Amino acid sequence: MLFQDRREAGQALARELASFKGSSNLIVLGIPRGGVVVGHEIAKALGAPIDVYITRKIGAPHNPELAIGAVASDGTLIIDQQLVRRLGVDEDYIEEESKRQKDEISRRLSEYRGDRPSPQLAGKIVILVDDGVATGATTLVTIRAIKAQDPSELVLAVPVGPRDSIESLRQEVDKIVCLHAPEIFWAVGAFYNVFDQTSDAEVKALLQIDQEQEV
If residue 164 lies in a helix (H) or strand (E), which one and from where to where? Predict the structure, then answer.
């Protein structure tokens, strides 16, 4: 299965989530950057507000694409201790990299949201969206941070992810919608015809559009 781009993937997910349309306590949260593009299409179709929930991967030394953990905007930290032991990663590195990623989260929150407060999630139906799942580390820490805020229901919506990661995440949420979960998985971008990097400016524009529609 191939998606043309993130917008098409979001529209396809929205069709699977149509039963949520009209829910008064619904909010869509996109994981920046690409998840906001996908999430915006879902929010638009369901008539729901969209906001961001920022989680950053903690990459392995000398291999930043390999996630050894992740940190969320509320400080929730998850570390894959088995992988850390196997790679021989020391605590100083984890502490330093965690701080660096928290600083980046703060920068992005200021960039995207300005003075707007974080949304209150207690009692809300939360649809958490990304443009795909790979290892699931950043998704997992996001899910656990959101669950700590006591939403009434938490739904994970992603276009694609490896079957083992999707099945593992299924245990963490009330519902999961994944359009394609192959056993053989190389990279999220392999399932898109267009998978260019989403800019901060595009994220801000999509959030601004949503705010203007609410006024």
Answer: helix 163-170
